[in-house]
Target: Response regulator transcription factor
Amino acid sequence: MTIRVLLADDQALLRSAFKVLVDSEPDMEVVGEASDGAQAVRLAKERRADVVLMDIRMPGTDGLAATRMISADPDLDQVRVVILTTFEVDDYVVQALRAGASGFLGKGSEPEELLNAIRVAVRGEALLSPAATKGLIARFLAQSAPETAGGHDPARLDALTVREREVLVQVAGGHSNDEIAERLGVSPLTVKTHVNRAMSKLGARDRAQLVVIAYESGLVRPRAE
Model:
């Protein structure tokens, strides 16, 4: 399968560099370029993009608003958004994850990290920048003001089975299906089934949103540094 990538950044030079990199891969192709969020949303639908590399700060409709629009559109439910940011420690990153982004990556990341991010996002997995720690999202959420919280009621988790809660805790810890399977003594396929059921019950698009829900509901709490 060829991964269809849409580039959304107001800097043409950066888009050109990303395009050369992405198009050099045999399993990827750039299907469109957008200079603002509104154009990104429109092209994501028109060009049937699989992944949008989205800058946060753009004129007009910014990347955060565009991510929300993509996540809210049923016709774009298979589109994954990877936020590209100059500042990894940024409240916008958390807002973007809440809005439905699959993860984020610093613009200064190595080329292989960017390409890997695209592949990870397509698989529906949560993506943290390799430069970030696994507890980064947790710390962001802990620092967020109460009025900006996502409002996830702990009772929302009542729909999950005991095993699904156990798996959710592991997902929030940044562990892969294989790692979770080894920790819980089950097969990776079983873990994948539990993850998919948890996403369905909680209305999460992907693993990144599961991580956010796990912390905002209080199931998992940030570790003291």
About this structure: DSSP finds ten helices and five strands in the chain. The first strand starts at residue 3 and ends at 8. Strands lie at 3-8, 28-34, 51-55, 80-85, 103-106. The radius of gyration is 17 Å.
